[in-house]
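User: Here's a chain of 174 residues. Predict its fold as tokens.
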Amino acid sequence: MLETDQMWRTNLIRLCGLAAIVAGVLRVIASVIPGTTPRIMALYFFIDVFLLFGSIGIYGFQREEIGLTGTLGFLLQVVGALILITRDVAVLGSGAYLVGALMFAAGLDLLAAGSWKGKRFPRWILILWVLSTIVGPIGYFSEGLSVLFIVSGMLFGVAFAGGGITVWFSDAAN
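Assistant: Prediction complete.
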């Protein structure tokens, strides 16, 4: 019974790692598609859902090593992703994007700090996560530097997909 539970957990974490890969790839694609048409908003809905499940996999993969900092970061990510998802389906107004995105970014930074200690992810992934949360707000709030928002999405997407690949191809049960 214990072995079956462990195998189920491992498979679930790996599937969530796959969700992180999909979220990252879609985020890179969305970074270069301008606009807020219904199709683009539908794409962001799927990205945000995959981000939620990807975050669960990334956390589950290293939950024992990341300490309180990483766990608090994960919780902020989940709340941020849920806010983004409810904004995507028009339960919350467009102003909720900023709140959800900033919560997710702050959570990602804390998770990266805990992950640095946990040593289960390559350092480049953690560095790109943090870099994306610095560059993104600069691009979002500075009209003349809006290209940085695109760069941020690409950095984040590559790193999140990299995190998913790490989970997918590693022994998630440990």
